[in-house]
């Protein structure tokens, strides 16, 4: 039996109705709320979710909007609709989060050492964004685009600007290995700083197509800037990961710290 919004104690007014002026299509808003409920375990794998009628009433949208939202989640492999029976959960987001993002240089390099990039045409090439405090821009850059795959399934879309003089030292290696690994192993190159930031985003048309996910599906946007001993930003990378495969775990306080006596 499907669990309705009322039975679950959720308010009938949802996030899809909170911002009437939002430019985000309504079906994407509905899909976002449903995706969050799957992540939170409101419906388990194999369980039937709320009916189209219930979702239509809850979100205050047309039936076609609900269908579009369900079709989007179905394209992401999270649910499956069965004619005459309803829509059932086929996967959970948390169970798919196998990619652990590193929080230090050594872990980052060891985690991608065996990665083989799948090159893409360079496409439109622009100047990399180098923020204040990230270093001085190089005189010229080489732009690389590639996909990261697990088996045959893409999970990351990388756009990398490499200082042209650095790229010229090992073009074949940069074409066949992760650029950060090549930099870490390059003799005579002193890396002074490597900084990575992570933001949460949503897939645009290009990213959705390349990663095989729905438009506006959650993504993790990792930005990494590496500077040499002269303060030049020799690597500026933007990598977009599928949000359903990424997790970030940070130990805030270990058992030893918890057990240690407090100083008075």
UniProtKB/TrEMBL annotation:
UniProt keyword Transmembrane, yes or no: no
Superkingdom, taxonomy of origin: Bacteria
SUPFAM superfamilies: Chorismate lyase-like (SSF64288), Winged helix' DNA-binding domain (SSF46785)
One GO process term, biological-process aspect: negative regulation of DNA-templated transcription
Cited InterPro entries: Bact_HTH_transcr_reg, Chorismate_lyase_/UTRA_dom_sf, Tscrpt_reg_HTH_GntR, UTRA, WH-like_DNA-bd_sf, WH_DNA-bd_sf
Keywords (A to Z) from UniProt: DNA-binding, Transcription, Transcription regulation
HTH gntR-type domain location: 24-92
UniProt keyword rRNA-binding, yes or no: no
Entry-linked Pfam families: GntR (PF00392), UTRA (PF07702)
MF-aspect GO terms: DNA binding; DNA-binding transcription factor activity
Protein name: GntR family transcriptional regulator
């Amino acid at each position: 039996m499907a669990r309705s919004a009322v039975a679950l104690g959720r308010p009938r007014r949802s996030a899809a109705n909170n911002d009437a002026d939002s430019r985000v299509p309504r079906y994407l808003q509905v899909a976002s709320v449903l995706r969050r409920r799957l992540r939170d375990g409101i419906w388990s794998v194999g369980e039937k979710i709320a009916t189209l009628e219930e979702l239509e009433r809850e979100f205050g949208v047309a039936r076609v909007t609900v269908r579009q939202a369900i079709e989007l989640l179905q394209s992401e492999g999270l649910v499956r609709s069965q004619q005459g029976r309803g829509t059932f959960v086929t996967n959970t987001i948390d169970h798919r989060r196998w990619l652990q993002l590193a929080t230090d240089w050594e872990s980052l390099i060891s985690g991608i050492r065996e990665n083989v990039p799948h090159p893409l045409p360079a496409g439109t090439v622009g100047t990399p964004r180098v923020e204040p405090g990230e270093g001085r821009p190089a005189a010229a850059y080489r732009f690389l685009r590639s996909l990261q795959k697990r088996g045959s399934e893409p999970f990351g879309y990388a756009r990398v600007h490499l200082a042209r003089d650095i790229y010229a030292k090992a073009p074949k290696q940069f074409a066949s290995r992760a650029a950060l690994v090549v930099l870490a192993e390059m003799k005579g190159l002193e890396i002074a700083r490597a900084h990575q930031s992570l933001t949460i985003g949503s897939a645009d048309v290009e990213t959705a197509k390349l990663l095989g996910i729905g438009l506006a599906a959650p993504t993790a946007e990792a930005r990494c800037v590496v500077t040499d001993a002269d303060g030049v930003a020799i690597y500026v990378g933007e990598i977009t990961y599928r949000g359903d495969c990424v997790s970030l775990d940070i130990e805030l306080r270990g058992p030893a710290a918890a057990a240690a006596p407090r100083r008075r």
